[in-house]
Specification:
heterodimer; A: about 90 residues; mainly alpha; B: about 170 residues; alpha/beta; Rossmann fold; two-stranded antiparallel ribbon
Chain lengths: ~90, ~170
Amino acid sequence: MPKVVIPVKEEILRLAERRKARGAIDDIGQHLAELIDLGFEYRFERLYREFEAGKISLEYFADELGLGVRELYAELEGRSLPTSNIQRQR
Amino acid sequence: MKVVFDAGPLITACKFKVGEKLVIDHLLTGCRVLIPPSVEEEVAVLGARYPDGVAAGERIADDRIHVISVNAYRWERHLLGYALGDGERDSIELCVQEPEVQALVTDDHLAFVVAARLGLTVWMLPDLVVELANRRVLTGEMAIAILEAIRPRYRAGVIEYSIEKLREVDGDA
């Protein structure tokens, strides 16, 4: 996994240090990396809901995530989600 | 028959196979597929690490899929008001620009609605398959095989509806 230096809000760092002190986590860096993953997931799900509702297009969805359309297509396939958001009225 | 594809259906058509042939090759027997450069970029350049991106690139290179530049952005201001990407906007503009385009082929709800509001004929990829069966370019059997192959990319009801339409075509024969 590539390593990057990023600014972290002090309160987030303090919370991570506290969790480590309590023994809830082993490594602060790994914990922060998990938070970044959760952030991506949150953003993906939020945008997917907008896509599903037809408010944004597939390509706009990809742009907002920083992915190409083909990468988003693969991401949706990997999650067993359709790449078309057109559906019959229920 | 000339049709313009946006990125989603092009990826799907270049990804799934029926028999030994990719779906796109079955479609190309009955229609001329046009795409704007932005769709080529998304599918064949940025998507070049995927087999379907390579397949699209090969068909562009030997002129089976035609890349046409958008010269005039007639609806630019209107289209910028929607949460569309460049490829979707350019595909819509290409339909307006090029003579005798039969339809925009998109599987995207927003692009579908926006294009329909502009007065364009819009089809999903399964609609194109049904149309080609209607025109006897594809047999009913082949059309069903294509619809079944691409089914995983669609929401419930879409493929079922197309199969119903195919039965009407067969009934008319």
